[in-house]
Amino acid sequence: MPNAVTLMGSPVLIEGVLPKVGEHIPEFTLVDKNLDDATLDNFAGKRKVLNIFPSLDTPTCASSVRRFNQLASGMKNAVVLNISADLPFAQNRFCAAEGLDQVINLSTLRGRDMLKNYGVLIVTSKLAGLATRAIIIADEHNVVKHVELVPEIANEPNYQAALRALK
C-alpha cells in the first residue's frame, strides 16, 4: 500500500516500503561524482545519514544539504549521503559553489530502483518519478536506527532526531 505525503498541501502518493528501525537498509547502486557506481559497500563500517530528497534546485533541499554539511563536520565515523535525481555535475557544482565538503552526493541517474526499494518514489504530482523527502539513519552494520518520511515535502526534516539516532 502506498504512503501519502503532501506537496504544498496537496496529497502525493509514495510507492514502496520504507525500511523500519531494526531492519537492514536495502542494497543500492547509485552514481557518484565521477559517474561511477556507488553501493553500500563503498561506505562499509561507517554510520550513514541518507538525506533523500527530490532535487537540489529547490530551497528546502538545498537547505537540508547545507545543514547536514554543517552537522557532519563534527560526526565521527559517519557519512552523509545526499540522494537525489540531480545529475552528478549539478550536485558537484552546487556543493563547490556553497563550499560544502562534508557530504557525499549520489544520483539516482542509474539507480532509480532504489527509490521504490526505500519507499520514497513519488508516483503522483508533477514530481512523479523523483524521491520524496526522507531521512534514514543506519549504523556501521547497515541496521536502521531512525526513519523520517517528512509529511510535507516542502518542509525540512527533523535534524535533531537524526542526530540523536547517530549517537
Arrangement of strands in the largest sheet? 7-6-5-9-10
Q: How many helices does DSSP assign? A: 4
User: How many strand elements?
Assistant: 10
CA gyration radius, whole angstroms: 14 Å
Strand content: 25-35%
Order of helices and strands: EEEEEHEHEHEEEH
Low-confidence stretches: none
Q: Sheet bearing the most strands, described?
A: 5 strands, mixed
Q: What is the 3D shape?
A: globular
Structural class: alpha+beta
Overall pLDDT score = 91
The share of residues in helices is: 10-25%
Distance between the termini: 32 Å
Sum up the structure in keywords.
alpha+beta; single chain; five-stranded mixed beta sheet; three-stranded antiparallel beta sheet; 167 residues; globular
Give a description of the structure:
It is a single chain. The chain is of the alpha+beta class and 167 residues long. It is 23% helix and 28% strand. The strands form 3 sheets. Strands 7-6-5-9-10 form a 5-stranded mixed β-sheet. The protein has a 3-stranded antiparallel β-sheet with strand order 1-2-8, with no helix packed on it.
